[in-house]
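User: Fold this; tokens only.

Assistant: Input:
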Amino acid sequence: MTEKEFLDYCQGQLSGPLKQEDIITMLTAWGTINYSAGYKKALEDHDIEPTKDNKKE
């Protein structure tokens, strides 16, 4: 899913016009999703097992 697809999906969940805080919330969520996915991928790429200290959900 791309950023645009994610924003389109989020916009579809709202009724009424988008407010600035809606866009900020959506972009924050998108950034968190990408960070988490990248963190997990980096652990996998370096054969690091998630532990209590480095586990991201």
